[in-house]
Structure formats: C-alpha cells, structure tokens
Design a protein that fits this description.
Elements: E1 2-3, E2 23-24, E3 40-45, H1 53-66, E4 68-76, H2 77-80, H3 88-91, H4 93-104, E5 108-114, H5 127-131, E6 136-140, E7 149-154, H6 159-176, E8 182-186, H7 211-222
Parallel strand pairs: 3-4, 4-5, 5-8
Antiparallel strand pairs: 1-2, 6-7
Length: 223
C-alpha cells in the first residue's frame, strides 16, 4: 500500500510534490483492534450457576487476550443482591474475581440483570422482595422433573418490587457508571430471560402506560 500526495506526476508516474516521498507498508490483518464490539464477546450467561472465576478464566483466558473485547455477564438480580443492601460487587468474592479477570485481560464489561425466574434454577428476584410483601406469580423452574411452576416472579407494577428494584438500580449504577470499564448495560430486565416475554401485571392497564412517562419518573428518582 502506498501513500502519496496529489500533484503532477514525476518521471516514475507517481503524484509527488517537491520534498514528498513514497511510504510503503504492509497492512496488519491479524492484530485485534479493541474498538467497541470488535472481536468476540465472552459470556457468563447463567440460567443455572454463575461460573467459578478460576475455572472460567483458565478456560477462556487465552481467547480473551487474543480475540475478545467484551465480557458479558448475564444473570439474576438475586445473584447480585441476595440480601437487601448486600451487593455482590462488595461481598461475593467469586463475582469480584470474574469481573477483575475481565478487566485484567483488557476486556470491557457488559451486563444484563433480569428479575424473572422462567427456565431458571433459582428465582430471578431475591427472596427479601417477596418477604417484604411484593405480589407475584409462579413460573417454570429449569430442569424440574415434575414440570411444575415453582419459581416466583413479581408483578412488574407491584409497588414493593418497584421500590426494591429501584434501590438496586441506583446502587448498581453508582458502582458501574464507568464508561472506561463498561461498554453497555442491557437494561430491559423484565420477562422471560429478561427479554420481555410474558410480563404479568397486577393491573394490566399499566402495560399500556406511555414508556416516556415511566422513563421520566425513573430519571427523576435516580437524580
């Protein structure tokens, strides 16, 4: 590949100005340029158990350093706040090691935190929310041989759930509001797998309220 200035052609046919020179180089087609989402995204997508950090990074470390740019942690709210106000990034050594392992390998972080227990080994929402009086309903638990609905999920418009989840969002935002380390937060949260399927409400009319109003309210609460 040649870089030249545009001017009259010299005797060799190249467009050169007085004092210019031709620079030739071979493009690097192999080295990963860590632009956002350039390369692989590594996942810990736990609908069963969160990965053990030592095992995960022993298996994924080489791929992370050679090919990946993002570590995407996707799991339950109940993993990040098993007890009210007790957060995994402060008290869960395995979670901290997973996150630090990504940062040590030059990966940026991404998250989805969901609240629904559908097809999951555990409830998506921590038990303290139900114990505080939130109303909810049963969804299917992963690998249940009886195929029974035995995971609990709160109604999306339940005020106790909204209060407790709002507290979590504020704490989570305070910890991870760092664009130097976090690439994105996949923030929908509700429904099966946090993908918006089969969301249930105490009052189904709340499903059709303008999302803009809800977003404005949440923004005001977070300020």
């Amino acid at each position: 590949m040649n870089l030249t200035a545009c001017s009259e052609k010299n005797s060799s046919g190249d467009n050169l100005q007085s004092g210019d020179e031709i620079i030739s180089f071979e493009p690097d087609l192999d080295t990963l340029i860590r632009n956002p989402a350039s390369g692989w995204t590594l996942y810990d997508d736990a609908n069963d158990y969160v990965a053990q950090a030592n095992t995960y990074w022993n298996q994924q470390g080489a791929a992370a350093e050679k090919y990946a740019s993002i570590f995407y942690w996707r799991s339950r709210w109940s993993e990040l706040e098993p007890e009210e106000g007790k957060y995994a990034w402060e008290h869960d050594e395995n979670f901290k090691a997973l996150i630090q392992g990504a940062l040590d390998r030059g990966l940026k972080l991404a998250f989805r935190v969901y609240i629904d227990g559908q097809d999951n080994i555990h409830n998506g929402t921590p038990d303290f929310v139900r114990e505080a009086g939130a109303k909810g309903y049963a969804v299917h638990k992963l690998w249940d041989p009886a195929n029974e609905n035995n995971n609990w999920t709160p109604y999306a418009d339940d005020p106790v759930f909204q209060e407790k989840f709002g507290n979590f969002i504020r704490a989570f935002a305070k910890e991870f509001d760092n664009p130097k380390q976090v690439d994105f937060i996949d923030a929908y949260n509700l429904g099966w797998w946090g993908e918006g399927h089969h969301v249930q409400y105490l009052n189904n009319n709340n499903k059709f309220k303008k999302s803009l109003n809800n977003s404005s309210t949440l923004k005001t609460q977070l300020q």
